[in-house]
Design a protein that fits this description.
By secondary structure, the chain is mostly helical. Helices cover about 85% and strands about 0% of the residues. The two termini are about 20 Å apart. Keywords: Membrane, Transmembrane, Transmembrane helix.
Length: about 45
């Protein structure tokens, strides 16, 4: 999943996306990772 997300980020950079949307996409990605790790910790 991380590799796919990195490919999407790289594609957005190559496509010339605006920096604001790129930062927002990265923020949502980090929040998703943080939430997933938190869920795994609570299950264990």
């Amino acid at each position: 999943m991380c590799v796919i997300s990195l490919c999407i980020i790289g594609y957005k950079i190559a496509d010339g996306e605006r920096n604001r949307s790129f930062i927002w996409f990265g923020f949502l990605f980090l929040m998703a990772i943080w939430y997933a790790l938190r869920q795994l910790r609570t299950k264990n």
